[in-house]
Amino acid sequence: MRKRPETSRSSNSQQRPPKQPPYANSTTNLSSSMKSIRSGSVWIILSAVIIYSCYSVHYYQFENLPSPLTAEQAGKRGFSEIQAIKHVKALTDFGPHPVGSDYLDLALQVYLFTYSFILFYFILSSLFFCSMFWRKWRT
């Protein structure tokens, strides 16, 4: 093995700074550059997981579940999708459906009362602590 020629170490201006990797410079550190390199693989893995999830849902829905039955195939006690849709349409044909009830109004009043009580307590306690600190600061 050859020896390196001796250089004078007395002058600091002749010394070269140590070599840095090409992706690292004085404004960025190594960890942030590694994050940018890693982000591509993260996106690839994330897209693969999403594609696999979509395929799993499709496979389960169209290849594992049975096809819907008609009223004749289901019989008297079986479940028929067609009959269920007819039943839902018959229920919705009664007319307008007003939203709300007495219990919903009562629950709303209880919620608003509780919320206003909590808000009042918070404001009162914050005013108390502010006045306490004001007195302490003033003296």
Q: What do you see in this structure?
A:
With 139 residues, this protein is mainly α. Among the domains are: 30-92, no CATH class; 106-139. The protein is built from four helices and no strands. It is flat and about 100 Å long. It starts with 29 loop residues before the first helix and ends with a helix.
Quickly list its features.
139 residues; flat; mainly alpha; single chain
Short description:
The chain is mainly α and 139 residues long. The chain has helices at residues 30-64, 71-74, 81-92, 102-138. It has four helices and no strands.
Helices and strands, with pairings:
Blueprint lengths: L29 H35 L6 H4 L6 H12 L9 H37 L1
Mean pLDDT, rounded to whole units?
77
Q: What is the string of helix and strand elements?
A: HHHH
Low-confidence stretches are none
Binned strand content: under 5%
Helix percentage = 55-70%
Major pleated sheet: none
Give the class from helix and strand content and strand pairing.
Answer: mainly alpha
The gross shape turns out to be: flat
Determine the oligomeric state from the structure: single chain
- Rg: 37 Å
Terminal CA distance reads 80 Å
| Helical run tally | 4
Number of strands: 0
